[in-house]
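> run fold Methyltransferase
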Amino acid sequence: MTVQSIFMPEAIYRYMLDASLRETAIQAKLRAETATMTEAHYQIAPEEGQLLAFLVEMIGARRTLDIGTFTGYSALTVALALPEDGRVVSLDINEQWTAQARAIWSEAKVAGKVDLRIGPALGSLDKLIAEGAGDSFDFAFIDADKENYDAYYERSLRLVRRGGLIVVDNTLWRGRVADPDDRKHKTEAIRAFNAARLNDGRVALCMLPVGDGVTLLRRR
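> ok
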């Protein structure tokens, strides 16, 4: 939910993009279109998208979850990284934002890889579990309402196979998690999520200062 990595001096950030960012024209177009929206800050950083694609390719993922579609950048990025038989199940509640996502997926010729499900994400995840999809996903990306992060994570842990990855966005929350005086609901939710993961033996853990903070969790 951050358009660039915020814990980095601007000059170094720009150098990093110039030296390493591989973004397609269609991804750049979507970012530019999204930047005109009031909710533009919901967009993930391009280097975070590249990290998602790298991880998906590294583990040979074929079936992935995208919890929080917005205008479709994360799903687009993952779909582009997947093999032809790969699929992204993308969850959101907003018809307007996801209409833009559908259009860009179609333009990028990856619409056939994306299964968009509109409705509360917890309900969609519970339905997947009820349908027997447990242990069938290779990868999940969580970037939706912060108060439900723990619930999304617990369901993702049931849906992602052993050795699969769960990536959680905004875990540094613009540094607010480190401010003891910040007691806002979203801050407290992320702070509680992070604290619970520290001693969660079900996963291997790595937090990175990419975007607004991303936490990588590999199911053991």
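The first strand starts at residue 63 and ends at 67.
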